[in-house]
Design goal:
With about 300 residues, this protein is α/β, with parallel strands linked by helices. It is built from nine helices and 13 strands. About 35% of the residues lie in helices and about 25% in strands. It is globular and about 75 Å long. The termini are far apart.
């Protein structure tokens, strides 16, 4: 009788574990790292660091795992454990989106376990020394590269200079999914003074991204706890940039100076007042627009 009860309990807890792992959203904590893991379907997952608001993701393909933007060591070690809860397939590739350290400093654990580290050659050429960044083992150039993984493939796309160096958009055709770093951050004003961004080129790149066939958009920053996004977020990001440029022009026509520009621009951009960092960063965003339109860079 006791054996039957034990077996029943074992089956019950196994089913609970399976449900938790493959339900839409799972919360996990490893030391200081608090993760939200969201199942986007067909083996694709977003991974969000709730403390740092950075996000990444991984795809469990038929013959291996692909990881996007290994943010930092603690984040990646936590994500590695979550991957291993779901599959024992080899981790084949880690994709660096671009050369910025805050997105690519956690690949060591994946490289240790046999993954190839993939980056655009332009990112490599501008990758400053950092002991936390694992050197890429597979580089690519040009505008597009297709990498097979078993009978499936994923595409690496480069739309030219827009932010950082070698900015790569990853698309998985069979899943109709893309991973985009920094170019799209849902409902957040651009970071500080938009470092390394070229706003007009950024708008053009968003146009190219929006032309891609996809239903699922994962990003490298997340303020929605692992929300699965779509084309609407790309278009919303583009609209914000166009409205910001228009607001800067309108503000100067009203007689704004550099000292008063921020308040003028906020008045024109009230539509975005509920976006994260609106009060803190919008004025700095406006200064970056001035730098491009008035000084030329």
């Amino acid at each position: 009788m006791e054996n039957k009860i034990f077996k029943s309990l074992k089956i019950f807890f196994s089913l609970v574990l399976i449900f938790l792992l493959f339900s839409t959203t799972v919360f996990a904590q490893y030391g200081e790292v608090k993760l939200t893991i969201r199942n986007a379907g067909k083996g694709l997952y977003s991974a969000v660091d709730l403390k740092g608001e950075y996000s990444s993701g991984f795809w469990i393909a038929d013959e291996g795992v692909v990881v996007f933007d290994p943010t930092n060591a603690a984040f990646s070690e936590a994500m590695y454990k979550e991957i291993r809860l779901r599959t024992n397939k080899p981790i084949k590739y880690v994709i660096y989106s671009h050369n910025h350290w805050d997105h690519i400093s956690g690949a060591a654990i994946f490289a240790k376990n046999g993954a190839q580290i993939v980056a655009h050659i332009d990112a490599i050429d501008h990758l400053m020394p950092n002991e936390n960044v694992t050197k890429p083992t597979l580089t690519w150039g040009g505008e597009k590269s297709i990498i097979p993984i078993g009978n499936q493939t994923f595409e690496l796309l480069y739309f030219g200079a827009n932010h950082g160096h070698g900015m790569t958009v990853t698309r998985i055709p069979s899943l109709k999914a893309v991973f985009v770093s920094d170019l799209v951050v849902a409902k957040r004003v651009g970071y500080l003074y938009l470092p390394d961004f070229q706003p007009t080129a950024w708008i053009s790149s968003l146009e190219e991204i929006n032309k891609l066939e996809f239903d699922i958009l994962l990003t490298s920053h997340d303020f929605g706890g692992g929300t699965i996004l779509g084309h609407e977020s790309v278009m919303e990001q583009q609209k914000f940039l166009k409205d910001l440029i228009a607001a800067v022009y309108a503000s100067f026509k009203e007689g704004a100076t550099m000292e008063t520009l921020g308040e003028h621009v906020k008045k024109h951009m009230r539509e975005y007042k509920d976006w994260a960092k609106f009060d803190e960063w919008l004025q700095l965003n406006a200064y970056r627009i001035v730098m491009e339109m008035g000084i030329g860079y």
